[in-house]
Amino acid sequence: MLYSPKSDWFGNIKGDVLAGIVVALALIPEAIAFSVIAGVDPKVGLYASFAIAVMIAFVGGRAGMISAATAATALLMVTLVKDNGLQYLLAATVLAGVLQIIAGYLNLHKFMSFVSKSVMTGFLNALAILIFMAQLPELTNVTWQVYALVAFGLAIIYLFPYVPFVGKILPSPLVNIITITLVAFYFGNESMGIRTISDMGELPDTLPLFLWPDVPFNFETLKIIMPYSISIAIVGLLESLMTANVVDELTDTESDKKRECKGQGIANIGSGLIGGMAGCAMIGQSIINIKSGGRGRLSTVVAGVFLLILVVFLSDLLKIVPMAALVAVMIMVSIGTFSWASVKELKTNPKSSSIVMIATVIVVVWTHNLAYGVFTGILIGSLFLAQRLSQFMFVRSEYDEDSDTRTYHVVGQVFFNSSEKFISYFDFKEAVDKIIINVKRSHFYDITSVAALDKVVIKLRREGADVKIIGLNKASETMMDKFAIHEDPDAIEKFMSGH
């Protein structure tokens, strides 16, 4: 069922507020890290996370889903920033938002139906691996106290829910952050060699201001930013729609994918106009939100607003939060995101499904680009599907001596991958007076299949047989009317000259 407007905002106030605080704390180091990836000042990522999170709460199609600056979009900006600077990045962000709104009106979200369960599982597993790998810099060349704090944090996250009374009231990730911060502060962060949020980069000390990208409004600018904007728009929508599907399953609810496309576009336009970079939905942060009790749009607003309050007004307090506490949260997300059942199912699932899942994981982890992995999974899955469909296509023949008639009964799907097999069933050397090709139980999908039927009919007629096609369904008949040549003498002559 879809959320009602009331439950979207006020159906889970306590859970949404507490979850939003946890998400805000986890967003800060990631926003700074993504800014570094893109080659811009940390405030660009922080302002973007604030703007996108708050705006998407009002205009997005999925309550409880977190959108902000992300690594997937940051990776696409590196060259643009390096070659042209921040202002062109802001312009590209605004244009990407416009393209996403257009995609929403064109119903491009429906292409998500091409994403199979195997691709989705591979996407989640790869993301879990990437989330864990992103924590490794905080776990290498560090003191033993850092490992102890991370282990302590994980213990709090997984055991606190079992504490009587309070275990069900407070989200364990938030308890972990507060507890680890107090412990590290008491014993001294510097003396134990513990990195804090302050070590990630300088935090902004002013509220964001509206500003129009300072770039020339001409075709040359459009030529520079358009390729980046298209890439950002596609990757952003792909990750957002897949994240929406995951949250749909976690909460057993439905979301409005068309509205989500438009909402992501509006949020990115807003981000670009206050000096922020482009972003999209974040599956890791969305899972943190859900696992911490967040369900409604209020949690997303709280995450964005609290993030801004922390970095602008409470930066002194925020700076002492150990990275170890946030690493523990992200490891929890990694463990929760990975589909452990998929490892066991490798032996029982069809080999094609397992190959699609593994290929998706490998490409995503290798390239650090979720879009590449998903496209690879879809492509390999499509090839396997085409192969399976072609295997189920066959032609059965029968001969009537009284009328000297050979009837070929075509069964299954005839398309680019089964066309050669279709042709191979016909005996072009047999001398019969009449041939009937019964296609009542088949379907011709593309011009390759039409060309195959043309080839069969023309070659059989060349041997002197009277060939008749019966049983064409309406869609196949439309294809024949448009592209078939076996009834066109001029086209047949041209075909014969080429063979």
Distance between the ends = 60 Å
Counting helices, strands and paired strands, the structural category is alpha/beta
Low-pLDDT stretches: none
Q: Tell me the fraction of residues in β-strands, as a range.
A: 5-15%
Q: What spatial order of strands do you see in the largest sheet?
A: 3-4-5-6
Mean pLDDT over the residues? 86
Number of DSSP-assigned strands: 6
| Order of H and E elements | HHHEHHHHHHHHEHHHHHHHEEHEHEHH
Tally of separate domains: 2
Plain-language structure description:
With 499 residues, this protein is an alpha/beta fold. It has helices spanning 5-10, 13-38, 42-59, 71-74, 78-84, 86-105, 117-135, 144-159, 172-187, 219-251, 257-272, 283-291, 297-312, 315-318, 323-337, 340-344, 351-367, 370-391, 419-424, 447-462, 474-483, 489-497; strands at residues 67-69, 279-281, 394-400, 405-414, 434-444, 466-470. 62% of the residues lie in helices and 8% in strands. It folds into two domains: 5-342, no CATH class; 392-497, Transcription Regulator spoIIAA (2-Layer Sandwich).
Structure summary:
The chain is an alpha/beta fold. The chain has helices at residues 5-10, 13-38, 42-59, 71-74, 78-84, 86-105, 117-135, 144-159, 172-187, 219-251, 257-272, 283-291, 297-312, 315-318, 323-337, 340-344, 351-367, 370-391, 419-424, 447-462, 474-483, 489-497; strands at 67-69, 279-281, 394-400, 405-414, 434-444, 466-470.
